[in-house]
Amino acid sequence: MKTYFMCMIVLFGITETVNIIRHHTDVVLVGAQGDLSRKYLWNSFFRLYLKYSSTNSTFRFFGCGRIQSKEGQKITNEILQDRIKCDKNDVNCVAKRQTFINVVKYLPVKTNQDFEDLGKELDSSKKDGVSTGRILYLAIPPSAYVDTSYKLYNCCYHANQNSWTRLVLEKPFGSDQASSQKMATDIYKYYVEEDIFRVDHYLGKSVVKEILPFRLANIEKLEYLLNNKHVERIEIAMKETIGVKGRIEFYDQYGVVRDVMQNHLTELLALITMDLPIDITDQKAVEQKRLELLGSIEKVESKKILLGQYSQYIHQASEEKDNTSQSMKTPTYASALLKICSSRWHNVPIVMVAGKHLDERSSFIRVLFKNDRFCVSGCNKLNGSNYDNIRQIIFQINPNELPSPGILISKSLFKPYLPAALKELAISTGHTGLYGQSINDFHFYIPIEDRDAYTAVIDDLYLGIKTGFVSTERLSKLWNIWSQAIEETALVEPRKYLEGGDQSLNFFIASDKLQFIRPSIIVEDLDTDLKQMQYNSIPATYLGHPLIVIEESDLLQALANHIHALVWQTIQSKQSFHLAVSGGKTPGKLFKILSQMQLPWQYIHLWLVDERCVSLEDEDSNFNLLHSELIKHVDIPYLNIHPMPVDKLGQICNEADQSDQAYEDSLNYFSKFKLNYVLLGMGTDGHTASLMPNSDSLKEKHKFVTFTKTQNLKSKRMTMTYNLINNAQHISVLVTGSHKNNIVMELLESKNHLKYPILGIKPIKGNMTFYIDFHAWLPKIVDIYS
């Protein structure tokens, strides 16, 4: 890369020979106006220019695309002006910013002549005594890699002794083993392995680049622990809160496994489990150890992988493409169980999780060590367990709720030595725990300089450091791990999940496979035409809350599945589950479904949201319906059944008896006014529970249960108030029947909860979902299903 020329300096009769290094680099960015270039690449190339440009190290930058020169230069300049930012106090950055923008030239590369002109432009920078490097960066669709790399080879490849050429490719590098090998073989016709730089930007993230240095700095203590004698399991996750709207075509072709698991997450696994070479700066030694580790990972089988798809994916697909049949089988979530066949890692489960529209944005590697300690005294009354018993290391790649990416290590493990690029940071959060420990029980170390991943990638690219790039042999081993699972699950329809934290995705390790803990809360076995109609015409939310619209029978099953999943999840933490229900014909059908489910009724408390002022044995009584359709069919303790006391000693709704206060007292005693699940209905006038339009109960500020009566109501009712309902963890509103369509549409135009009481249901900390059947949502299609 470096060329020298001799300069004689004569000073006060002293003759000295000085070596002056001179080098020039041309950067060709094909796809200069694309999203990747806009968001990351141009700014990263500016950082490269800022760091390395000098009188002896010069640069030229060429943005290339398919549009003509004048328009292309205009768009490129606009991108640079918008994306290249400097701190106003950074004098050097401010001074070089405009210089950089001025040296960026746009050239079209649409025709063969365009490529020839590009080659001539690059050759014009050749000078005697100056070594030259060329970076050919393809930020274009992979389908164009081979053809474009061939044309760039013909016009722009450097074969001189003192020069180099680097071809840069972005993932995906094929969609399977065969296509990946074909792409590599085709590119090998023109370029050698030394020329090819495949980007995995995750390897450029600041914490990821410190994994090997951190392991080396603590080799005596940490390497002793990183094996099957001490490690309980390893978790590697990449969770995102956003979806893939606007990228459906890409995701239909690749899905989440190909998108992040086959590359990013498996690369992370290699870094944490590979044997350390003697010298981690020896690129060949590092690559060899990494290849050995990847070669020892068992192929992932279909039984070791779980797939999911967020509920609005098909709806989004229908907006971006005409045929969504392929979209039905596209996974946006996956969890997988991996095993390493080596004496070091034998029988250590490695769990990977990746998905879109999950409950948090977080990516990490978590090494959980075996708990071989038992607390006898000073245990804070934790019955033998203590925070100190948890020993773990977390490489937090995206910070989530932490102030920075960094490395968390349990204080009970050891106090680590730090490589030069890390420093300790004292932290606290608003949460009492993190990964099962108090935040105060961790050491936390962060990068001294948290560089953008692409800035690090471009820096290594310029210096020729290949450890952060994917070699052809490594790529083959990565595909070898995942190809079987991808092929076996190609026709599997993923489990549907609600956006934002659907707990039905929780799973457990069962011997050598993964299983979901509970059923999906969304019905999956709908007729294809029905699915298409649902997704093509229905939004993701209603009144700001998640919306599910399907046929009534499937809707009730989905709602029952939701309750079922939440019950089991709650009782796992030794808590009771408090379920409050409304009356009505449709809820009666739901009660019947629940009565046939396997539920731990000894832990479930049943409450009434509201009740008519009639005898509990009256056919109009909500409790009578609940009893006939559910209670008498299940083995639930008598003390877990809580009818509203409207019928007290033969007196019906006698306010002097303060029966509403008595129900409040029961709620306080058993649930502390914190219901786990409230099932509501909605009337044609917008009332819910027995909170009637313009009634005094809508203005109740203190009571949790009250009597309500309006001029249109022949008798009193007892009802829970907003104060109690809105404090619930989960609220579902069930709306069925074509006669409800008008009110469903009217509510979209109003915010008046006094006129439409359902609008006053606003969970304080919980969540709320509308379950609406097709008849209530789209009355015109009733005949299709009748």
From TrEMBL:
Write out the pathway annotation from the protein's UniProt entry. Answer: Carbohydrate degradation; pentose phosphate pathway
Q: Which residues form the signal peptide?
A: 1-17
Q: Where is the Glucose-6-phosphate dehydrogenase C-terminal domain?
A: 214-500
Annotated ranges, domain Glucose-6-phosphate dehydrogenase NAD-binding: 28-209
Instruction: Enumerate the InterPro entries for this protein.
Output: 6-phosphogluconolactonase_DevB, G6P_DH, G6P_DH_C, G6P_DH_NAD-bd, Glc/Gal-6P_isomerase, NAD(P)-bd_dom_sf, NagB/RpiA_transferase-like
Query: Recorded E.C. number(s)?
Result: 1.1.1.47
| One GO term of the biological process aspect | pentose-phosphate shunt, oxidative branch
**Keywords, in A-Z order:** Carbohydrate metabolism, Glucose metabolism, NADP, Oxidoreductase, Signal
Identify this protein by name. Answer: Hexose-6-phosphate dehydrogenase
| Domain Glucosamine/galactosamine-6-phosphate isomerase: start-end pairs | 552-768
Single annotated GO MF? NADP binding
Q: Identify one Gene Ontology CC term for this UniProt entry.
A: endoplasmic reticulum
